[in-house]
Specification:
This protein is of the alpha+beta class and about 160 residues long. About 15% of the residues lie in helices and about 35% in strands. It has a 4-stranded antiparallel sheet, with no helix packed on it. Strands 2-10-7-6 form a 4-stranded mixed sheet, with no helix packed on it. Strands 5-8 form a two-stranded antiparallel ribbon. The relative contact order is 0.20. About 25% of the residues have low confidence.
Length: about 160
């Protein structure tokens, strides 16, 4: 019975410590505290278009070769205007920045490279994934040509 005060005191102390930890985690960002980064799903993406969607003024492209893309990469392609503007959905995350460029265009295909550039220096970055719409300009309208998508990452 002598140690009952110690046991009760220890229990109360543990209860107080766990309650303080729960209150801090229950409202991230409250009072200026740190917030944990979260992944952004396509439905939570910033204004623009989500993977699988085509802008209202775009025409979907169905002749697409995506064999060089990883399975989780967006596969949405469209044309705008007279068909010389080709749009794609890129993928970027954290400190990365997506861009697109035409690598080659011939009578049967247009090869577009999707590039994610990340900084060379280590820095704190968010852990979100974004799907920005990107466009490239062709010398001639796309017409019946196949769009071949490739992707890579580089540091600058």
């Amino acid at each position: 019975m002598r140690h009952i005060g110690t046991v009760v005191g220890t229990g109360v102390l543990l209860l107080v410590i766990s309650a303080c930890g729960s209150a801090q985690n229950a409202s991230p960002g409250a009072g200026g505290g740190p917030t944990l980064p979260t992944a952004t799903s396509p439905s939570e993406a910033p204004p623009g278009i989500a993977p699988g969607e085509v802008p209202p003024d775009g025409t979907p492209v169905t002749k697409i070769d995506t064999n060089a893309l990883t399975p989780d990469y967006p596969r949405t392609v469209w044309t705008q205007g007279d068909g010389r503007t080709v749009g794609v959905v890129g993928q970027e995350g954290g400190c990365g920045k997506a861009s697109a460029s035409v690598l080659e265009q011939n009578a049967s295909a247009v090869k577009i490279e999707l590039l994610e550039t990340t900084p060379l220096t280590k820095q704190m970055c968010t852990m979100d994934i974004r799907f920005p719409p990107l466009t490239v300009q062709l010398s001639e309208p796309l017409g019946e040509r196949t769009v071949v998508l490739t992707s890579r990452q580089e540091q600058k």
